[in-house]
Amino acid sequence: MKHIVIFALLVFTSSSIFSQDCQGFISMQLNSILEYQQFNAKGKPESSHKTQITNVTSENGATTITTDNTYYDDKSKEVYKAQQSYTCKDGVITFDMGNMFDAATMSAYQSMEVKMVSDKMDLPANLSEGQALSNGSATMTILNQGVKMMTMTVNVTNRKVEKKESITVAAGTFECYKITYDIESKVMFKVQAKSAEWYCAGIGLVKSESFDSKGKLTGSTELKSYTK
User: Fold this and answer.
1) In this structure, is residue 184 part of a structural domain?
2) Model-level pTM?
3) Is 119:138 a contact under the CB 8 Å cutoff?
4) Considering the domain boundaries, does residue 223 fall inside one?
5) Among the ranges given (8-12, 121-125, 146-150), the one the predictor scored with the smallest mean pLDDT
6) Does residue 183 lie in a domain region?
7) Using one digit for the tens of pLDDT, what is the confidence trace for 168-194?
8) What is the distance of C-alpha 43 from the center of its chain?
9) Tens of pLDDT along 5-53?
């Protein structure tokens, strides 16, 4: 699952000036920065990315957060930039599943036409152990001068809140909710995998892990620093 981002782009910081409905696992402090390190199956650093909240607006009961995301290779060389947006309304964060395609995948096709069809997924501001969360899918089609070159599909199922626990990473120790789900990706053939993510209130994503269909760790992401 090297070419699938777990929800590493769903990262935020908090601000008390907006609706209290969105003060859970979405955060909204303008210009805050979260830095993440990605590791391979053996725990060796292989890439990193930085997310900065660049715009926060509130209208008609909904708050929209825009993030600028920069991705780096194992030598800290910039390889890709992308902007994402997230919405919180009535205590539920929604985001486009197209965000699940990682920087390595997207940067390879910057010069080509990319068409995306994807569901909206959600992350409630209030989580509890055993809670079932929404599933979804996304399909990305790559075209070169109008000719279809490749189609990639990601399906997420069995998404749920497993438990609450304390997690320690480079940025510190955080009380988190662990969310797990199954992933099926398809390019030429189907690949089954599993993922786990840890979210902290007022911070966002703290850690994620990817596993193959047999439960073997294939990679992980950890919060390296958080600057308000």
Assistant:
1) yes
2) 0.82
3) yes
4) yes
5) 8-12
6) yes
7) 999 999 999 999 999 998 888 899 999
8) 20
9) 433 333 333 333 344 456 667 656 888 899 999 999 999 999 999 999 8
CATH of the domain at 107: 2.40.360.20
5 in a structural domain: no
Contact present, 71 and 49 (Cβ < 8 Å): yes
| Identity of residue 76 | S
Distances from the Cα of 90 to the Cα of 11, 64, 81, 123, angstroms: 19, 13, 30, 11
Side-chain half-sphere of 172: how many Cα atoms within 13 Å?
A: 11
pLDDT at 72: 93
Nearest alpha carbon to residue 65 among 119, 26, 20, 106 = 26
Count of domains for the chain? 1
Q: Which domain holds residue 131?
A: 20-227
Q: Please say whether the dihedral angle defined by the alpha carbons of residues 177, 39, 112 and 70, taken in this order, is positive or negative.
A: positive
